[in-house]
Write a structure and sequence with these properties.
- This protein has about 475 residues and is an alpha/beta fold.
- The chain has two domains: about 1-30 and about 375-465, Arc Repressor Mutant, subunit A (Orthogonal Bundle); about 35-330, pyruvate-formate lyase- activating enzyme.
- The protein is about 35% helix and about 20% strand.
- The chain has 18 helices and 20 strands.
- The strands form five sheets. Strands 1, 4, 5, 6, 7, 8, 9, 10, 11 and 14 form a ten-stranded mixed beta sheet that branches. Strands 15-16-17 form a three-stranded antiparallel beta sheet. Strands 18-20-19 form a three-stranded antiparallel beta sheet.
- Helix 3 runs parallel beside helix 4.
- The mean pLDDT is about 95.
- Monomer.
- InterPro entries: Coprogen_oxidase_HemN (IPR004558), Coproporphyrinogen-III_oxidase (IPR034505), Elp3/MiaA/NifB-like_rSAM (IPR006638), HemN_C (IPR010723), rSAM (IPR007197), rSAM_sf (IPR058240).
- Its EC number is 1.3.98.3.
Length: about 475
């Protein structure tokens, strides 16, 4: 049986233009627009208690929304301040939320994955970071053998001499470094001046300290970028050699994200130029030896993401691609989104509203969703396609106790156009995404999205490419 060739990417300009519509990124299914306010904090409490029966390991996500400086491209939920003392009330509420979680969760369940995101988590002082991690260890069963995936997002401008040694001491073993672009004019236009030497120092020190996976974030579509400039950044990054790369498309939405109003729209590259940048970036990174995991992600062949994809263990959640499909994800802090059993839960976006709820001993749940059996089946199909670029209908049907061809009869008819366009092959009851289809995997997944097919409300999403 032929399996998808994960080493090849086939760039078909006409197909890319035809299929480059708006659609979900499928960090969850159903996607966030389906979450609703009818899901209450009491529903969350029940989901937490019920999850203990599974004995599943845990993943902890902490949202730390503080930044010393605002990057103009940013669409994250953050608070700009230079005073770390302003973090104190927020940290106290993070710890209080952990206490509330610990009252419902079997705290002996192993924490296999932990992530601090933001904002800029290293904005916290050394003492504050130590206090937060110590409080976490007191309440949850963190691994002490350095075999969990404990990661943190870094802004090199906020990494002092003691930061990385402290993080390693606290148990972090993976870092994600925000680079975005190495061109000075681009950096000035986005209010993030960060010379290569600064990122290089963080990379070198992380390696020396034994961090086992280092990710770089890059963004294409920023002001003053063009193919030549971004190619130069890419060559420098390849020379630096991070273990993973995320190459994100900048979405300019100044009506939604106030900092983006500081960007001069006339300085942004055209849609055609962005496609040239993306085509070159994918081809160049694959030539340099990186594996195209999917969507925006690349990894070296020996990285755990690449290994998980080859072994059929790759998963996708709110943090992107991950190797921990078995974990219940507890999300802590303002705006964070968790997944506990067959439920999704999101906290208040506003830090003050979040703190008010937690201060009243109520979870800060603003909305959520309990999945139906159909949701669970479709989520599994989408996850298999977006992670592994194939779906065996016979095996899938047995796993979910369905007749695959009957259950997805309408979807298989709609996929015929993808087959005719060379994005997908039918091999008996197996769907195999072609090298051309890998770039447009979101379009294939959209066929299985029952909510999208009902509403066709794609304006809530970014473009596929």
């Amino acid at each position: 049986m032929k399996h998808p060739d994960l080493t090849r990417i086939d760039w078909q300009p006409e197909l890319i233009k035809r299929y480059d519509l708006a659609g979900p990124r499928y960090t969850s299914y159903p996607t966030a627009p389906q979450f609703h306010s009818g899901f209450t904090e009491q529903d969350y409490r029940q989901a937490l208690s019920e999850s203990n029966a599974s004995g599943a390991p845990l993943s902890l996500y902490f949202h730390i929304p503080f930044c010393a400086k605002i990057c103009f491209y940013c669409g994250c939920n953050k608070i700009a301040t230079k005073d770390t003392r302003k973090c104190e009330p927020y940290l106290a509420h993070l710890i209080q939320e952990m206490d509330m979680l610990a009252a419902h969760i079997d705290t002996q369940r192993s924490v296999e994955q932990l992530h601090w995101g933001g904002g800029t988590p290293t904005f916290l002082s050394d003492e504050q970071m130590r206090r937060l991690m110590d409080a976490t260890r007191e309440r949850f069963n963190l691994r002490d053998d350095d075999q969990g995936d404990y990661s943190i997002e870094l802004d090199p401008r906020e990494v002092g001499d003691t930061t990385l040694p402290l993080l390693r001491e606290l148990g972090f073993n993976r870092v994600s470094i925000g680079v975005q672009d190495l061109d000075l004019e681009v950096q000035q236009a986005i209010n993030r001046v960060q010379p290569r030497e600064m990122s290089q120092r963080v990379l070198d020190e992380s390696r020396a300290l034994g961090f086992r996976s280092i990710n770089f974030d890059l963004i294409y579509g920023l002001p003053h970028q063009d193919l030549a400039r971004f190619s130069d950044t890419l060559e420098q990054v390849i020379e630096m050699g991070p273990d993973r790369l995320s190459v994100f498309n900048y979405a300019h939405l100044p009506s939604r994200f106030k900092p983006q109003r500081r960007i001069n729209e006339a300085d942004l590259p055209s849609a055609d130029e962005k496609l040239k940048i993306l085509e070159h970036s994918i081809g160049r990174l694959v030539k340099a030896g990186y594996v195209y995991i999917g969507m925006d992600h690349f990894a070296k062949p020996d990285d755990s993401l690449s290994l998980a994809q080859r072994e059929g263990r790759l998963h996708r959640n709110f943090q992107g691609y991950t190797t921990h499909s078995e974990c219940d994800l507890l999300a802590i802090g303002a705006s964070s989104i968790g997944q506990v059993g067959p439920t999704y839960i999101q906290n208040h976006h506003d830090a003050e509203a979040y703190q008010a709820s937690i201060g009243n001993q109520q979870f800060a749940t603003i909305r959520g969703l309990k999945l139906t059996q159909d949701d669970i089946i479709r989520r599994a199909a989408i996850n298999q396609l977006i992670c592994h670029f194939e779906l065996d209908g016979d095996t899938f049907g047995q796993q979910h106790d369905i007749a695959f061809n009957d259950y997805f009869a309408d979807e298989l008819i709609r996929l015929q156009q993808h087959e005719q366009d060379g994005l997908l092959e039918r091999q008996g009851n197996r769907l195999v995404v072609t090298p051309a289809g890998r770039l447009l995997i979101r379009s294939i997944c959209m066929v299985f999205d029952a909510y999208l097919n009902q509403s066709q409300q794609t304006q809530k999403y970014s473009r596929i490419i």
